[in-house]
């Protein structure tokens, strides 16, 4: 397998061949977790029996997750098909997949649900990508059918798929589909511009394939999860530097709807606590402070090897006082050398190390390591902070926001310059480092590769609120917990004040509405009385004119009587 350089998630640098126009060589294992619904499984296997991918490179492993009665292999199946069962005492999709992948012999694992009818070149469409790079996660495209009427038989499915007439097997369901995935893909140029925090969202398990080695590097399935295992695995795959490829040509029918479609609110309610604990990208699920999480958002590494206790303490306490609620600190140093033998406590050459260890040995947010691994998987970020430099309360949040603006892989904060060069704090994106480690050539600078694939930027200490110990500690840290309580109380007070103000605003709006109504009524009354006054004026004018005419007539009669005289 090759390791081409793919910047971010822009798999457009690859040129996959058209189905049927290339020579496959990689073996693939299709792993199908299944529970009950034998009739749908029969159709799934019948479609796989008609695939264009060479049969000698294709194995199918069905894993029965405790069906009663047990599942069986039907007559129409691919040549190399096995049926396994989840071991006693274990259950769920994650365990079924773990069981199947442990037995798989293929270099690529293709997970497929037991209610999928794949098009003729479905497996081939997936596999053409895996021949180009060894860190791709390929996602098939689903068409949903309600399976109205009598479903086709397994024989009819096999014949239709083999003759490339899979379209005719079912009627599309107009009311259900993965429209949200299509919208995400379209919004990010076929997902080529998708930022790192978004990648895992499209990792749904109905039909997805990836190299077996990549799955192993991510840690395999989380068998403690009963639902949401595909989302959680998608997150960890992101941190291995995986590229996600949604392939519109890898078509299949989904027989019926998913549980998430039928009971969306209940699924979210069930999954949210488990996903919040494992996927730091879901920031909306980690809104509460004062919590510890299984997977931190950022791992802060401070090397205590040649530093004073005071410098290490200042750096660690500064990191732990971050406004981010999910920070973990890893302290590196020769901790194994701290034996329990007799020593002069105040003259111990390892005194500073012992003080550091004593300070944080029982803090669940701090761990000790002789050295750190190449990446901070599964945490999405790592900040390496030199001992004696203190990040401000907002520094970590500010740096991560900056990194996420352009999906950058590396931010370097210049702290000072000494005889050895520039001393810097480093914020690394785990996915970027993992990708660079995959594709870097011998002797090539890892930072240069990260910059090439994700981008790297130098920043200054003052703007990003890093200060040396003497300027930052212990003044800011004194009574830190009481300060936190005070500010929380202040925030509660401000919240109550805001609520009172909101109630006042609501009352004023109601009063204003009444005044507007009264004003409107007054305007209508004014118009009505104005109209009546005008009417009275017109009537008065008409009456006056009538009276004047009457007087004129009487005067004319008298005048005629005087001039004519008596008759």
Walkthrough of the structure:
The protein is of the alpha/beta class and 567 residues long. 40% of the residues lie in helices and 18% in strands. The chain has three domains: 27-285, Spore Coat Polysaccharide Biosynthesis Protein SpsA, Chain A (Alpha-Beta Complex); 298-477, Alpha-Beta Complex (Spore Coat Polysaccharide Biosynthesis Protein SpsA, Chain A), CATH 3.90.550.10; 485-562. The protein has 16 helices and 17 strands. It has an eight-stranded mixed sheet with strand order 3-2-1-4-7-6-8-5. Strands 11-10-9-12-15-14-16 form a seven-stranded mixed sheet. The longest helix is centred in the C-terminal third of the chain and has 85 residues, at 480-564. The radius of gyration is 37 Å and the shape is flat. The mean pLDDT is 92.
CATH-defined topology of the largest domain: Spore Coat Polysaccharide Biosynthesis Protein SpsA, Chain A
The H-level CATH homologous superfamily of the largest domain, spelled out, is: Spore Coat Polysaccharide Biosynthesis Protein SpsA, Chain A
Shape: flat
**Low-confidence parts lasting 5 or more residues at pLDDT below 50?**
none
Strand order of the largest sheet: 3-2-1-4-7-6-8-5
Relative strand content: 15-25%
CATH class of the largest domain: Alpha Beta
Count of individual domains:
3
Q: Helical region count? A: 16
Structural class: alpha/beta
How confident is the prediction overall: mean pLDDT?
Answer: 92
Radius of gyration: 37 Å
Approximate helicity band? 25-40%
Biggest sheet architecture: 8 strands, mixed
Query: Can you name the CATH architecture of the largest domain?
Result: Alpha-Beta Complex
Q: State the separation between the terminal residues, measured CA to CA.
A: 142 Å
Instruction: Report the count of strand segments.
Output: 17
